[in-house]
Amino acid sequence: MQPLENITAMMVFARVVETQSFTEAANSLGLSKSFISKEIAQLEIRLGVKLLERTTRRMVVTEVGRAWYQFCARALQEVQGADAFIRDYHQQPAGNLSIIAPVNFGRRCIVPSLNAFVAQHIHVQVDLDLTDRPVDLQQERYDLAVVVGQTPPAANFHQLTQIEWGLFAAPDYPVAQTPVSHPQQLPRHDYLLFRGAAHTLSLPFRQGKQKLNIDVHSRFRINNSEALLSAAIAGAGIAYLPCYITHEAQQQRQLVRLLPDWQMDDYYSYLVVRQSARPRALVAMFCQQLQAALASDHCFSA
Questions:
Q1: pLDDT digits over 72-131, tens only?
Q2: Which molecular function terms from Gene Ontology are attached (predicted)?
Q3: What's the pLDDT tens digit per position in 3-16?
């Protein structure tokens, strides 16, 4: 007797035992009652044992039938698990996702979400390009672009987060030890300012109906906010930075914020989707997950 001969019969027998009915077993398996009856009879012949005692009124599982049922039930469970695995495999998102994002925002805010996304979806491959150069999705073959600016992109975008900017200095920097109380006290200090797309010659302040633009002196300009952060921690001056990038340094008391009651520049991050991005379901799923992750991020929720 070959074991493979009994596989179908084992599943049929397990269902008969569980339903206590040939008719219900046939219905649940999508088979005819006559097929069920024939399969059980042939199984008993092959095994050389009586599995079921049948009368016109009832059906009783024999002692050997109850013991053999345990093996059949495990086999049926394994088959059902295999079917579920294949169903899940086809339902899971799959494909390649290419993304471009600014270096620092991408490293701090996009990469953590991508780590979680890739871990959750084993059939997804991601290509991430971190660069601060401008990108045009009409000309380049990225599926998604993360952009940061003060105005929305032209079209087909999702707003992610508001990015607040502020002034920060090391705790032992003179202005932190004797804090300023008004923006007009700022010009006599040295500043670490951004050189690049977010460069500034004066610092904007808003409080209620008051709006001020204060010209300041910068001896050190850098085109990278991480480098500005390091310079500020080292005590090289007052840095004008996006607040999310300073969160950890503030928690560790490496930086303090100056004039926190005054609002300064507000930028926004956007996720731009290329019109022909594929697969669309994968793109939409990542968009939703990224928006949810950033909405709950303590760096932006304060």
A1: 888 888 877 777 666 666 555 667 888 999 999 999 889 988 888 888 888 888 899 999
A2: DNA-binding transcription factor activity; sequence-specific DNA binding
A3: 566 778 888 898 88
Structural domain boundaries, residue 150: 95-156+267-301
Cβ partners under 8 Å of residue 81, min gap 6: none
pLDDT at 251 over 90: yes
Average confidence score pLDDT of the chain: 84
Neighbours of 139 (CB within 10 A): 6
- 209 and 129 in one domain? no
Q: What is the largest CA-CA distance in the chain?
A: 104
Identify whether residues 210 and 259 lie together within a single domain. yes
User: Would the pTM count as exceeding 0.90?
Assistant: no
Contact 270, 158 (CB under 8 A): yes
Residues 271 and 260 in one domain: no
Among 72, 91, 110, residue at a domain's last position:
91
CATH code for the domain of 108? 3.40.190.10
Task: Give the E-state strand segments of the chain in sequence order.
Answer: 52-54, 59-61, 95-101, 124-130, 144-149, 157-169, 190-194, 202-207, 210-215, 217-222, 238-242, 256-258, 266-273
| Integer Cα distance of 298 and 294 in angstroms | 8
Residues 174 and 233 in one domain: yes
**202-207 vs 256-258, strand pairing mode:** unpaired
